[in-house]
Amino acid sequence: MRPAIIKALFAGTIFTSAFLLFLVQPLIAKQILPWFGGSAAVWSICMVFFQVVLLAGYAYSDWVTRRLGAWGQAKLHVGLLLASLAFLPIVTSARWKPTGSEDPTLWILGLLLGTIGLPYFLLSTTGPLVQSWVARTPWGAQVYRYFSLSNFASLASLLSYPVLIEPRSTLVQQAWGWSLAYGVFVLLCAATTLCVARRWAAPTPRGAGLTSVGAAAPSARPGLGDHLMWLALPALGSWLLLAITNHITQNVAAIPFLWVLPLSVYLLSFVLAFESDRWYRRAVFVPLAAVMLALCAFGLQDSLGSDLRTALPIYVVGLFALCMFLHGEMSRLRPGSAYLTRFYLMLSLGGALGGVSVGLVAPHVLPAYYELGVGLTLCALIAAVLWRQRRAGVAVSLALAGTSAWFLYLQVNFDATGVRRMQRNFYGALVTMDTQRGDARDPVRLMYHGSIKHGEQYLAPERRREPTTYYGPRSGVGLAISAAPAASRQIGLIGLGAGTLATYGRAGDVYRVYEINPEVFDLADSEFSFLADSRARIERVLGDARLALEREAPQAFDVLAVDAFSGDSVPIHLITSEAMDVYLRHMRPDGIVAFHVTNRFLSLAPVVEKIAQAKGLHVALVHDEPPEPGLRNTDWVLVSRDQAALTRDAIRIASSTIDPIPGLEPWTDDNNNLFSVLK
Predict the structure, then answer these.
(1) Would you state the pLDDT for residue 216?
(2) 556 near 588, Cβ under 8 Å?
(3) How confident is the model at residue 66, as a pLDDT?
(4) Which domain holds residue 141?
(5) How far apart are CA 207 and CA 310, in angstroms?
(6) Does residue 457 form part of some domain?
(7) How far apart are CA 652 and CA 656, in angstroms?
């Protein structure tokens, strides 16, 4: 076999594995996202799983290259490749659907392990394993370029999914397409394995096959300090990736697919740092990283870091500069090919530690999103270690660490001022606080979920039963409830917030509340009195609303308020054609489904209209701009089988036209895309 063909085989195997490795992440996450309320935390938990399995794959690669001969490696690896085909197709089983009582983190990890565990593990082994085989060949000096190629493939995969794959295929088609592509990968990887076993059964002498620039000398054996830096640098890169993703999606803008942008920047830094030594220039990136670190830290306690127009470029550029610094320094420390798999093992272990710290530990240790300030401080401290031979470098690094720590302190101090409760779990950070509106006669209590206000109540006894924020009497949901029959009413609420809609409850009414976050129930009971003051009977259902409604007998709702689209992420599964079928099963013939579509970034009213039109339903958009200071501008889309329900005087007078989006099709569980409804 000609060297050019063998090179193409190696490159094709690595490219295919890396492409599939990152393609499966959004694909599988989108399958399970509806089961956990569409929470953005699903992405973080998936990321942690992928990093930990990647670590296992790198450990496997390190072990087999050190313990087994070429034919032993071939037999074991080909056997595992064939066994992994039993996991195909990668379609998540309905038996993994949660009931609401499970710990979502552990449930997601178990689900991923049982669905894609072995295929993902083998994909993760490919990069370091094939590169260790490349090191045995006459062109072994190019081995780190294959690492750059794998990161380029990952980046291409990540960007192609939302732009090319997701809009043009259903989830089932995506799963089958990925599974077929995985079969091609198995053939390529098996062919590569057997080719190496036949032609280069003996490894190159220890220390051979080194890169020409920046690698250790042939005789240099990495010491403890090298191993610690191989661990710390990627750990901080992974830490900053997840921390900045959390910051911009929770505290800056509630745009759920913003996680793609930081991950793309993170991968790009790997591509550039390991493609060759020409990209990472200390004279350029060290000063840039220092400036951006200080700016990112300053933004933690200033409006500069929370306004979308300034925060997004600051933190995206900051992530790129800091990751170029971290990954560039890691590339400078890369060893000879004899220690290649150990280097990748430490790199992966560091990435996993950073991911676990932010994705699993931080939500249980930190009451709010403070991991970014901690990560910036640690990044400055690791720079002091790198420049330990240079007094000026150490001084500047320690000054940056102190500055970052100070701004973190200011952030924590600002958050704590006036705050009554601050708590955090899988679904995000919740804060309640008291403030004044107007004068001393109008004290109010607020609830925030990330950067989004989720409720407000007047504290004065004579005003605490007044509806506030999005739920005024002239809002769409206020009109729908008021127009319901005079007899006892059955009202369904998807999304509780502070419980404001319970103020409309009358004696004999039943309000059935579906809420996925148990801490929201806790705060609604302990910090607000809407539920306790309501004259209606309040029924509570903990768990994802759609899954609960699918299991329940018909509830015969007069009004079902779907209030889940203004928060930290949009649960698409609650605004699809299949979801509408679930809602309609629970409605009276003249009942109204009220969708709260107030959103700064997404135009969701046309989505509801398209679904309703496809099912022959009637639609009315109620846009309300109340003059009262306690109420906010809102958009509610009302949907009913009965046109008369939407032509009652109050609703008819308040109705307005929905501006269409050209080319928009009714959303389904398989076909939906948030890019198409960006404002």
Answers:
(1) 37
(2) yes
(3) 82
(4) 1-204
(5) 48
(6) no
(7) 9
Helix (H, G, I), strand (E, B) or coil at 220: coil
Could you tell me if 346 and 245 lie in one domain? yes
Rounded distance between C-alpha atoms, residue 319 and residue 372, angstroms: 11
Which residues of 550-586 form beta strands (DSSP E)?
557-562
3-state secondary structure of 537: strand
Could you tell me which residues are beta bridge partners of residue 540?
A: 513
Confidence at residue 202, expressed as pLDDT on a 0 to 100 scale: 55
pLDDT along the chain (679 residues), means of 10: 79 91 84 74 80 87 84 90 93 81 85 92 87 72 73 84 82 92 95 83 45 42 88 95 85 61 86 81 94 95 83 93 95 81 86 89 89 96 92 94 96 87 86 80 87 87 93 95 89 95 96 94 96 96 92 96 78 91 96 93 92 96 90 95 88 86 90 77
**What pLDDT score does 205 carry?**
42
Kindly compute the dihedral angle of the four CA atoms of residues 559, 560, 565, 569, in this order, to the nearest 10 degrees. Answer: 160
Q: Are residues 257 and 177 in the same domain?
A: no
Pick from 497, 496, 678: nearest CA to 599: 678
- Residue 163 DSSP symbol: I
Check residue 20 and give its pLDDT: 94
Following CA atoms 578, 674, 251, 475 in sequence, which dihedral angle do they give, to the nearest 10 degrees? Answer: -60
Residue of 252, 629, 598, 249 lying closest to 456 (CA atoms): 629
The predicted pLDDT at position 218 comes to 42
Tell me which H or E stretch contains 590.
Answer: strand 587-596
- Residue ranges in 604-660 assigned as alpha helix (H): 605-614, 649-654
Residue 444 lies in a domain: no
Amino acid at 31: Q
pLDDT at site 437: 74
Backbone torsions φ then ψ of 425, nearest 5 degrees? -150, -160
Q: The tokens of 481 are what?
A: 């409830």
Query: In Å, what is the CA distance from 545 to each residue of 251, 313, 493, 562?
Result: 25, 36, 9, 9
- Nearest CA among 424, 422, 426, 386 for reference residue 228: 386
Identify residue 61 by its one-letter amino acid code. Answer: S
CA separation for the pair 222, 240 (Å, rounded): 26
The confidence score (pLDDT) of residue 38 equals 64
Here the CATH number for the domain that contains residue 550 is 3.40.50.150
Q: Is residue 447 part of a domain?
A: no
Q: What is the CATH number of the domain that holds 74?
A: 1.20.1250
Helix 41-67 crosses helix 3-32 at what angle (to 10 degrees)? Answer: 150
**Whether 237 and 193 share a structural domain:** no
Q: Could you write out the DSSP letters of every residue in 95-144?
A: GG---SSS-HHHHHHHHHHHHHHHHHHHHHHHHHHHHHHHTTSTTGGGHH
CA pair distance 560, 513, nearest whole angstrom: 10
Instruction: Give 3-state DSSP helix, strand, coil % of the chain, rounded to 5.
Output: 60, 15, 25
- Provide long-range contacts, Cβ within 8 A and 24+ apart, for 59-65: 59/345, 59/348, 60/121, 60/125, 61/125, 61/128, 61/129, 61/132, 61/341, 61/344, 61/345, 62/128, 62/341, 62/342, 62/344, 62/345, 64/129, 65/129, 65/132, 65/203, 65/341
Rounded to an integer, what distance in angstroms lies between the CA atom of residue 183 and that of residue 185? 5
Domain count, the chain: 3
